[in-house]
Design brief:
The chain has about 80 residues and is of the alpha+beta class. It has a domain at about 10-55. The chain is built from one helix and three strands, in the order ββαβ. It has a three-stranded antiparallel beta sheet with strand order 2-1-3, covered by helices on one side. The longest helix is centred in the middle third of the chain and has 8 residues, at about 40-50. The radius of gyration is 20 Å and the shape is globular. It starts with 9 loop residues before the first strand and ends in a 26-residue tail after the last strand. About 10% of the residues are buried. The mean pLDDT is about 80.
Length: about 80
Amino acid sequence: MPKPVLEPDIRTIRPAEGRKVRWPFSDRVLAEAGEAVTWSSYWERRLRDKDVEQGAAPAKPNGGAQPQTQGQSPETAKVS
């Protein structure tokens, strides 16, 4: 009988506000918007210590773009 193949546990995490978290065995910093990682004891410890949060960063309304007044181009719209 063949052994069952286990799927890796992939989760999306992001650094907690004000934190910079490095990947294990690397100098690379976890992106503020969040990244998919293979869950391990390293990431479990980061979550327990509140260095990371689960899920991607919340999307900014309007894709982070400045709101436009109807009938105005982005160049002529006044930003208050």
